[in-house]
Amino acid sequence: MTGRRRRGPNAASRAKGRGGGPVRVGLVGAGQQGRTLGHALMEVAGAQLVAVVDPQIGSAQLVAAECHLPSSAARTRIGDCHRSDADVWIIATPPNAHLTNFAELLRLPARPRAVLCEKPAAWSLGDVTQLVSLAKNSGVHLQFGLHLLSAIPPAVLSWLAAGGLGRLVDVAGTWLRVDGDPDWGHFRTGHCPGATFDLGPHLLGVMLPVLGRRSPICAVTSKMVSALATPLLEGGPIRRDSSAEIAMFRSRPGGLEGAGTLSVAWSGRGTGAELTILLRGTEATFAMHLDEGCGDAVVRVRVDARSARATGVAGTWETPARECYIRQLITLVEAADAGVAAYVPPGARAQDAVASTRLITAAYQSADKDGELISW
Ligand SMILES: NC(=O)c1ccc[n+]([C@@H]2O[C@H](COP(=O)([O-])OP(=O)(O)OC[C@H]3O[C@@H](n4cnc5c(N)ncnc54)[C@H](O)[C@@H]3O)[C@@H](O)[C@H]2O)c1
Which of 8, 251, 324, 351 is the most exposed place for a label (fewest CB within 10 A)? Predict the structure, then answer.
């Protein structure tokens, strides 16, 4: 088991803040996701929100008030939080601000013990790599907000990481959205080809912990089925008919060996995202579905394979997305307590962000060059 035992459903182990009281948490970015995480944090026993930062002071004050903090806890700059003494920070700003935010947090007199940064880590491979090396050099635990992973039971994650699914051959992802741009459409600052743009961080973020750790991908070819001409930020909606086929390769003595194909597409049916990983030669399946249809979003995980049944990890789990956020925050608070060296959280490690960004970047480059093989 990679997870730690918990005292109650939403209790963060026996984590303690610097002063021996609750773990003190700061939030940077009080938009949609910051607000969601602020609310989820109120359900984590042993943690207390102490600062909210947003250049829009009204947004910071709103989240502070909703979380029962005085308005003095709301700030417009990280640099103004030197008295907050936060042990842990959450970064929920747009991806192009994550690296700067993290560097600013490291300059606070009370250096954070752990940071949860929203996904995607950043838009460029260079920025993601810099984030991860800053964390490593400063000894700060850094984890990324791949909340979907929290829906996978720890025993299943361990089983996957140990190669339980066998040889992965085919991965398919579908973005189920009847209308509207992908959620992150409003962050677009560069050419991001259609469906891959939004699904990349979701799909690859989930897939890599399953696939990447034991069979690292080192080359891809990629074909975009629709035109690559996804417009820039101000250039209108993303094309809904876009889809992508990515062939992945791993290194073997004497050359490259196919390690699976990844297809990403839009679908006009339903809402949410769907990920299915199929295997050649076995009936094994790992499937994940985020249903945002109506009311609270629910994450469904299904694992089925002869080996999974034999190990007792086959099954279907449904977890409200809200509970996924809470679990992720519990992990963060526990990581702050245990220290970066002693604690490996279930789910998204900093290195996974580098690996998935590298893969997405290479896929874009390959598509740009008519499906040329891109290796690294
Ligand atoms: N909205 C979602 O459903 C969702 C889900 C998963 C992940 N995310 C991720 O969460 C992050 C935030 O997304 P969002 O949807 O909340 O965006 P948002 O636009 O609703 O909120 C972003 C907030 O950050 C503030 N901000 C911008 N630059 C800042 C800076 N330098 N310092 C402090 N605050 C700053 C903005 O004023 C705004 O209030 C992104 O990385 C996104 O990909 C969002």
Answer: 8
Contact 160, 329 (CB under 8 A): no
- Asked whether 61 lines ligand 1 (CB < 6 A), one says no
From the options 3.30.160.20, 3.90.1150.10, 3.20.20.140, 3.30.360.10, give the CATH code of 149-375: 3.30.360.10
Give long-range contacts, CB 8 A cutoff, 24+ apart: 17-23: 17/48, 17/87, 18/85, 18/87, 18/110, 19/85, 21/48, 22/46, 22/47, 22/48, 23/47, 23/48, 23/87, 23/88, 23/333, 23/336, 23/337
Average pLDDT over residues 310-328: 92
Rounded to whole angstroms, the Cα distance separating 149 from 66 reads 27
Residue whose Cα lies nearest atom 27 of ligand 1: it is 93
Write the single-letter amino acid at 325: Y
pLDDT at 241 over 60: no
What spacing in Å lies between the alpha carbon of 112 and ligand 1's midpoint? 20
Residue 340 Cα to ligand 1 middle (Å)? 26
Dist CA 340 CA 142 (whole Å): 8
Rg (CA), the chain: 20
Atom 21 in ligand 1: residue holding the nearest Cα = 31
CA of 99 to the centre of ligand 1 (A): 13
List pLDDT tens digits, range 34-85: 999 999 999 999 899 999 999 999 999 999 999 999 999 999 999 999 888 9
Burial of 158 (0-12, 13-18, 19+ CB in 10 A): middle
Q: What is 23-147's CATH topology?
A: Rossmann fold (3.40.50)
Q: What is the mean pLDDT of the chain?
A: 76
Is residue 202 scored above 80 in pLDDT?
no
- CA nearest to 339, candidates 107, 87, 79, 98: 87
Domain-wise residue ranges, the chain = 23-147, 149-375
The answer, yes or no, to whether any atom of ligand 1 lies below 6 A from the CB of 37, is no
What are the CA-CA distances from residue 206 to residues 63, 150, 273, 311 (Å)?
Answer: 29, 10, 12, 22
Q: How far is CA 226 from CA 240, 291, 366, in A?
A: 9, 26, 14
DSSP string, 142-159: EEE--GGGGGS-HHHHHH
